[in-house]
Structures are given as C-alpha cells and as structure tokens.
Amino acid sequence: MSDDVPALELVGLTKTFNGTRAADGVSLSVPRGAMLGLVGPNGAGKTTSLSMAVGLLRPDGGTARVLGSDVWSDPIAAKRLLGVLPDGLALPERLTGGELLDYWGRLRGLDRGVARARAEELLRVLELDGAEEDSVLVAEYSTGMRKKIGLATALLHAPKVLVLDEPYEAVDPVSGRVLTAILRRFTDGGGTVVISSHVMALVEQLTDRVAIIARGRVLADGTLEDVRGADATLEDTFVRLVGAREVGEGELTWLAS
Amino acid sequence: MAGLLIRLKFTLLGHSATGMRLLGIALAVLGLGLTWFFALTAGSDDVRADLLTLVFAVWAAAWMLGPTVANGTGVLRSQYFALLPLDRRRLGALLLVTMFFDIGPALTLVALAALAWHALSVDPAALLVAVPGFLLLWVLVISLSRLVFRALGAAMHSRLGMEIASVQWGLILAGIFFGWMAVQPAFSATLSLSENGLGEGAVGTVLAVLPTSWPVLAVQAAAAGSWGAAAAWLGALALLTGALVAVTSVLLAPRVEARGVRRRSRPLGARPLTGGGPGFSLLPDTPLGAVVGKELRQWWRDPWRGLELRASLWAALFIGLLTWPSDQFSFFTPFAGVIAAFIMVLATANMYGHDGTAVWLSVVGQDRGSVRADVRGRQVAILLLIVPGATLMSTAFILATGSHWAWPLVITGMAVFFGVGSGLSLLLSVVALSPGVDPQLRVDANDTGDNQVQVWIALVALPVLSAPAVLAAVFLGLSGLPWLAVPVGLLNGALAAWWLGRIAYRRLEARLPETFTRIRYSKAIALRTVPEDGSWLDRLERTAIAGNAETRPTGS
User: Fold this and answer.
1) Contact A86 B360 (CB under 8 A)
2) Where is the ABC transporter domain (chain A) (predicted)?
3) Which of A39, B318, B488, B544 has the least C-beta neighbours within 10 A?
4) What is the distance in angstroms between the Cα of B67 and the nearest Cα belonging to chain A?
C-alpha cells in the first residue's frame, strides 16, 4: 500500500431523510497519521456523514474508503481497519465491561489470551477496572463510563483508523486527558483519528486538521492553519462560515430581572 | 396543569400509530354494547343485578390486563416531567388524572352508567346511590388498570419482581391457550344469561365479594329500603377507591433514584476480568462461543428478556396443571414441554428488536462468518436455556400421570418444535424485527417492541413447518409404531433449524446497515429500504414494519 493512499476518504456521500438532505455530497480526505476534527452546528450532518463512512448507514450516493478499501463494496476489509465509537447507542447492556470486551475480542477473531490481556489493560488505563471488580453492568455505567467502554471496544482490535463521534462528551477532565494521551499515542504510531465535536477550543487544541460541515455540506477542509487563515480562532472561522445569530439589545431582557 | 397534560397527551397520540388503539376501542365498544344489552333485556331486576356484577368484574379484568398485554409504551412517561419544579406525588396524581381523558375510559363510563338504569327500574330513589356508585367504580377501574401496569414496570427493577411478573404472564398465556376450558361452560350459558341470571352457585358468591359488585349491592340495599347498608357499601367502595388512587399516584410519580442502581450481589455468571478468575471457559474459544456466552448472560440478567423466557416456562407449567384434572383435556398434560417450545418461539421472535441500537456492534464488527456466528449462537443459547426445563417438565408430568404412551410423541414433538422454533425465531427476529424503547432507557414491562406480526406468523408457520413430523407421529402412532416418528421429528427439527437459521444470517449479512436503519430511524425511512415487489422475505419485512406499532427509541 503506497503512502499516499488516504487513511479515510469520503467521496460525495449523500443521504436524504424524508425530503431533507442530511448529507449533500460530503467529500473529505484524511491523510495517514492525521487527527481530523469534524465540526459543525447541531443537525449539520456530522453523525449522518460518519455513519455512512463506517458502514452503519447506506448512502443514497457516494462511497467511503478506508486505506483504499471501499466500505460499501468490500466491507470486511474496510471494517477490519476501522475502530468506531458511535454516539448515544446501546451496547449489550447486561454484560460487565470486561465481559463485553472479551466477547468483542473473540468475535473479531482475536486469540483469547491476547483479547484478555488487551481488555485488562484498557480497563485499567481507562479507569474502569474498579467497576469491573464489582461486576458493574454496562447498564449501570454513567454516561462518561459508557463513552470509555465504547472507546475500549473501538481500540481492542488495534485498528488503523479511528472514527469517534463526540468522544469527549460527558467525559471528566481527568479522563479527557487520558483520552487525549491515547489518541496522541495512536497517531504517533501511524494511526489516523477522526473525531466529531462542537467544542471548537477542544478541536483547536487537539487536532492538526479540521473540516467544517453545515447543512450537509463541507464548507472548509484542511490543516488547522489553512482553515483558520486570518481569523484569530477557529470559532471565528466557524462563525464566519456558518453564520451566527447575535442576541440583540432588546431580546431576552427578562433573563436579567 | 391537568388540562395542559391532557392536551399534551392528545398531541402525542396524534403522532403515534393507531392499530392497537383502534382494536382497544373496538373491544370497548363491543363491551359497552353487551353491557347495555344485558341491562335492557334482563328478565328481572334480580337477574339484572346479577348480570351487572358479572359485567363489571369483566370490565375491571379487561382494564387490568389490556394495557399490559397490548404492546406499546405509556403515552405520558413520568420521566418527561422529572425536572419540573412540581411535587412528585402531585405529578403522579396529575398523570393519573390524564388517564381518564380518552375514548376507552369514556366508553367505560357509559357502560358503567348501566347501574343508573338499573336503579331507575328498581326504585328511582336508589339513583342517589347509583350515580356516586358508578362514578366511584369508574375511578376504581381506571386507577386499577394504571396500578397493575406500573406495578409490573416497577417489578422489572428487581429479580423477585421479574419472577412474579413472569408468573403473571405465564398465567395470562396459559389462560389464553387453555382458559376457554374453564370459560366454556359459562360461555355456553351466556345465551340464557339474560333470562335466568347466574342463579345460585359459586360464581355468584365469588362475584358478590368483589369490590366491582359493591355499587350494585348498594343499589340493591337502597331499593330494599336499608339505606344504612347502602351507605356502608358505598363508603367501603369510596375508601378502597381512595386508597387505590393514592397508591397509584405514588407509583406514577417519576423515579428519582439513579438509572444504574447497583446491586449488592454479583450478576449471574459474572467472572470479573480483573479479578484473576478462572482462565478457562466451557464455551469454545471462537466467535460462536463468544456469542453463546454473551446471549446466555443477557438472557439470565436482563429482566425484559428473562420475563419472556420464564413466562414461556411458567405458561407451559400452568397449562400442564390446568389440563391435568380435566377429563377432556388431560391428553395435553404430558405435552407441557412441547407447549413450552411453542411459546418460546412467540417469546423470542424479536431478539434484534430487543437489543435495539446495540446492533451497531454487529455492523461495524462484520467479519467473515461473524454474522453467521451471531445468528447460530443465539439459536444455541435459547435452546440451552429452555430445553432442560421443558424436558424436565414433560418428564415429570408423564411420570406423575403415568402416561407412558406419550414418551415417543413428546420426544418427537419437542425435537421438531425446538428445531423449527429456534430457526423460526431467528428468522423472524431478523426479517420482522421491531424496535422498542432502546435498552438503556426501558422502564415498563412492555417497553420492548411490538411483536404482534411475529406472533401471528409464528402461530401459522410453526405447525406448517413441523407438519412432516406431526403427521408422522399421528399416523405411526395410530398404526402402533409411535417410536418410528422420533427420527422423523429429529430430522425435521434439525433441517428446519439449519435451513431457517441460514436464511436468517444470509439476510442479515446482506442487510446489516438496513437492519441498523430499521432500529435507529423511523418506520417511514425503514420502509424505503425494502423493495415493494421484492422476494417473500421483503414482503414479510414490509408487513412487519407496517403492521407493528411504532415505538420511538426514547419512549415517546
């Protein structure tokens, strides 16, 4: 595989729900070893685009490739290279975190010893080992813990490309630092990460590339510097591209009463 | 505030599917018609009083069972309002009030008003008792309905509660299957009911003590001039209704403890990874073994799954016990295990709907053979869970009743029903899957998706697919060679389990993202993924999507 094959490529992904274009020809190219932040307002089409990129939602048009393997025509090859963390979905709720990872590792064809060792290490690093000792079920996890066990399932089979939908949401600052360290180690080792978020400061501090998406279209895509251009912060760029509604002088005055 | 909630309820109702609701309304109209028919055509005042006690008891029973048996979530869920600065009790009471504003309760009220007609015809002065009587009864019946529904939901939060709910469900299912045995004599007498009433007998005595009969007794007492007794009956009814309303309001109040209340004991089968537990497992170290292990744990630990699984065993046990003393039906007693297999299919035919959006794991984890392992593993797990209990039950019934003639027939029946059933339940789980409230958000006992389409299909398909073995058992049994049917049953069962499971995993493999879409997005979007004039599987899927009531993943 030559080095110039992008790690993740979204090619004209389009999806219409009940007459609304949730994604309208979304194209992105993420080089290997990069960390890309996908930002956009609520309902911009971030989750829809990422779902189509990882094989969860069949696009009306376009496709996605993971290190050259087409997600829609060669799903098995592409999915072996992918680690995915969706936002707000269920898990096998009545397993403990360790049981979930054990099941997941074996389903993905890992040797039992390897799966076990990696699962133990992930639980420890993500500070879920205490809950595991008490046999806490996933159903009893807090929102942040759910994010963390989801991340562990995404990492367990040592993928080449990580696609994480809102990975920092509900994660406490200490765990957030751990998460950042994990992601940095992953990209240092040649892995590629795509995260979606609507927290600009986080994306600015964490990623080297950024794509801005609104109303189902990609408005900007490139290195952080390129996208930001002359703007002082990414938030300014975002507001300039997406447009912002200012709160007028006479509005919501009752809040101050 | 109550007016606001009632308007919200009707707004939400306007956005939800109506199949089950229409059926409920149709039944209520039928009940209303029957009630007034009895009231108007009764041969005498005493007969009418008898009939009203019977009819009122039936109304109460229907209200207790109906909302629980019918799939679908409550319209206004108390969690929606948990953050409002309202007293929890008051909110519970308000939610209870909204229950009275609907077509069903309105029809019920009109039906119960037959008591006023009765009072008018015995003694117009008794109206003084009849009007508050039937109003109180109305409040009692509707509150009781809500109480039973919520109590079952609350029961889902403890293992004992789940077990009690399973027993109730088992009884209901047994009642649906064989209850007509008990009802039949009463039913054949219905035609003469409006002439003769219930007469002297056990039924009348039992009915007389039921609270639903108290307003009738109050009217009777008033008509006879004993106003003291009338006031006593009415007072007792008012006290009971008040107590019920109070308890129901408490149960309807939003739960404030955290979603994840931790247990004190370890969940069944837990071996913490970090605790240095035994490094071996009985299950093979393969994807299939992984799925079987996951499924066994989920069936043991998830109260919603446990309810369905255990209810099929309880139902089979009750059917065995109910048929045993009967002359006509004791033939069925040894077949309790076979009946368990039959009910298992009905109970497990929506497994992927049960798992909800967790199916994303199967989609992103797709690998060579992973989907096959998922389907086959589920087949193995349900058999491991239910075959031992069913076998034990049939063996015990055969030994206890001494019906040793039944051995070959029971073995044939179990082999074919469990084989066909495990294949059919997976096929329906894949093709006809119907999402409910997403697992992490479930509260009430019927928050898992509507499965009426699966049930109807299974009721027809199971006998058809088992026909070779059933016919072999009948004909070989009649020609004195019943044991020769056993290999036919084994072959029929094994082939069907293999073939139906194969159709299921191939279908799932080809439609993984569509399966996720089916669960994650609404009915309309799911329908667009299935061709209109496609294969029989496509048609089956369209039927299921269109026929099952829609439940939003968040429960609204």
Assistant:
1) yes
2) 8-240
3) B488
4) 27
**CB-nearest partner of B358 from A90, A120, A132:** A90
Q: Which of A17, A56, A116 sits opposite B525 (nearest CB)?
A: A17
Q: Is residue A37 part of a domain?
A: yes
User: Would you say A27 and A211 are in contact if contact means Cβ atoms under 8 Å apart?
Assistant: no
Confirm whether A77 is domain-assigned. Answer: yes
ipTM of model: 0.93
- Partner B contacted by A125 (CB < 8 A): no
Long-range contacts of B257-261 (CB under 8 A, 24+ apart): B259/A139, B259/A140, B259/B440, B260/A136, B260/A137, B260/A139, B260/A140, B260/A141, B260/A142, B261/A140, B261/B157
Count of structural domains, chain A: 1
Do the bridges between strand A161-165 and strand A35-39 make them parallel or antiparallel, or are there none, so unpaired?
unpaired
Assess if residue B258 is contained within a domain.
no
- B290 to A86: CB separation less than 8 angstroms, yes or no: no
**CATH code at A73?**
3.40.50.300
pTM: 0.81
The domain in which residue B74 lies consists of: 2-252
For A112, nearest residue in chain B (alpha carbons) = B285
In terms of domains, do B187 and B100 share one? Answer: yes
Query: Which of these three, B225, B252, B279, is where a domain ends?
Result: B252
Question: pLDDT averaged over consecutive 10-residue blocks of chain B (556 residues)?
Answer: 80 68 83 90 84 88 75 63 78 85 90 92 89 94 86 72 79 71 56 56 67 91 90 94 90 64 61 53 85 92 86 90 80 92 89 92 94 96 94 95 93 96 95 86 75 87 95 92 94 97 96 92 83 87 82 53
The closest CB to that of A123, out of B274, B300, B301, belongs to B274
CA dist., res. B87 & res. B82, Å (int):
10
